[in-house]
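Design job #97: recover the sequence.
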């Protein structure tokens, strides 16, 4: 798969002509990889819950998707509008919340 194209300011990626908020580039690689793993697991769980017609499980999985997307800086306050301390707190708190729910 080709690397997505970024906008000149680096704030967005363009995939199939659609613009999406880019992941915060200041998240260190190891926590970013853990967040992406948790995001993908939550997305798989959304699909499984939908196939099982389990509304409660789908709601929980979608909540975890949202937490991961916020932690990665792809939702919520744009990462480029946050201070370095706010950015660090955002991904730390999101990772902690996701890992507690995953346990």
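Job complete. Output follows.
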């Amino acid at each position: 798969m080709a690397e997505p194209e970024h906008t000149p300011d680096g704030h967005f990626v363009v995939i199939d002509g659609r613009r999406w908020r880019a992941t915060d580039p200041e998240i260190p690689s190891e926590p970013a990889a853990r967040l992406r793993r948790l995001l993908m697991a939550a997305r798989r769980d959304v699909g499984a819950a939908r196939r099982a017609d389990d509304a409660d499980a789908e709601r929980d999985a979608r909540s975890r998707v949202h937490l991961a997307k916020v932690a990665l800086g792809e939702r919520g306050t744009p990462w480029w509008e946050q201070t370095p301390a706010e950015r660090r707190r955002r991904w730390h708190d999101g990772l902690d919340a996701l890992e507690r729910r995953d346990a």
